[in-house]
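User: Teach me something about this protein's shape.
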Amino acid sequence: MEFLGTTQVASYCGMKKSCLFPDPAPTSTTKDSYQSYYLPGYRHLSSWRPSLLHKVISVPPGSDEPYNPTGRPPTVLPTLRSALHARYSTRDWHHANMVQLKGSEASRYWAGRLNTDSVRLMQDKDQLTYQMQEDSRRNLGERISNIDFWRSELVYELECLLRETQALETAKKHLECAADEMQGPLKTALECLYYREKRKGIDLVHDDVEKNLIKEVDVFKDCQEILAKLAQRINCQLGINRDAQHALEQDLSDKNSAHFIDEKCFNLRNTSDSINFYHGVEKVDGTVSVPVTWAKFSEDNIRCSQHARANSVKLCEDTEVGLESTSEEMWNQFVSTNLAFSNRIAEVADAKNKLQAQLAKILQEIFQTEDTIMLLERSIMAKEYPLKVAQTRLETRTKRPNIELCRDEPQYQLVTEVYTIDDTLQTLKKRLQEARDTLQMLLANKSKLEHDISVKANSFFIDKKCMDMRKTFPSTPRLIGYT
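Assistant: First, the predicted structure itself:
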């Protein structure tokens, strides 16, 4: 860099002295030390330095050394140099003024255009900003309307779902009440079966009553199984309903939050106090859905809830049908079992009456047989004395002497009499034994009849007790769980 108004050989512009190498010997004069300088846009000045520098050299006072033409000249001040020599010409001055005026005019023109364009740009941008703000506000309003629509749909669907869920829970309670009501008749039927196991002998028969009781127990157990399956289905459906309800409530809660936020954004104005700068927020995309998927999400939740409601309605209908069918089936079986009990009791009573009548006849025959035996015994005793008389006569006649032992008519008559009486005694004794055998048979029949009568009485008592236990049966409303 050159310093105008100073020489290149000035002491403060020269090269730094080196400690290793000595200064080189000067080989040029003061004239050779200056170089030509060109100003941009101006003509070339071949020699602008003052000639006085080549003629006037002041020698410092007190120096006895002769003048050395190769010595370094003293520094000349710029003010002195400017006073001695002019830099530019008049033409340069006019040209510079003209260039300055044209530049100022161009700057003013461009400044005017810039101001006009800026005003128009500000107006356009203000209009654009206002229009964009209005569009955003309108879009927010439409969004709020859409949220209100889906909120109303969700609220309506949630209310319907809650009603169906309540109806389903009521149906479940009916099932539980009906199952509890079945325990009584089932217990009664089982007790009747256990009591009837106490029948004795031939009366321990697999009759219609036992068949109906077993069928009644099976019917009650089948009905309980049907109700248990319905209750299990209701529990599963209640879980599905709760999931759908949770989805609707969560969606509705999100819609309420979004509605509050969007309404707050809708009500924001340029004069609002809560507005602030959030630099870079437009670059952050935290959205997880688009309007189509947003609407589809709520639509899917509503469709799922509608499907759950339809299943709940069908399940409630199935529950009502199941309760009615089971109550009717149990009642019919109960009536059938009671009818079988009545028939069986009548049969047992009739058989018992017949046995008692037969026992009365057997007792009469026993009495008559005992009388006959007594008469036969008396008759046999009465025949012994005539036999003794005849045999005594024969034995006495054997004592007749010699020829007097004649087989005469008395002898024949006595022998015939003995044989006849002995035959009579044998016949009477045989008849007496038959009478006694008959009496034993009658006594055995009497014992059997009395045993059978006691067995029939026991069966009659058991069946009557079972009928007394079966006098009450739950009413149809209780069987279908309404009480």
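Now, about its shape. The chain has seven helices and no strands. Residues 90-196 form the longest helix (107 residues). If you'd like, I can walk through any region in more detail.
User: That's plenty for now, thanks!
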